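Human: I would love a firmer grasp of how sequence relates to backbone shape in proteins. Take your time, and here it is.
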Amino acid sequence: MMGNDAWGNGMWAGHGLWMLVIAVLMVIPAWRICQRVGYPGVMGLLILVPLLNLGLLYFLAFSDWPANKKEQE
């Protein structure tokens, strides 16, 4: 019924591509930050989950970082 007009498959494929680009641009810095402060980089994937992304940011902001503990020893 629907062709490749504004509501067809062509438009949704473009949105999916942009969502993938945005996801990669968000995950890479979050992954690196988690690694640098001493947590597993996989925690950076939480940045993609709504509400858990805020939890991750607050956790990183207010927790004691394992990397700092290693420097003090």
User: Anything to note?
Assistant: Residues 32-64 form one domain.
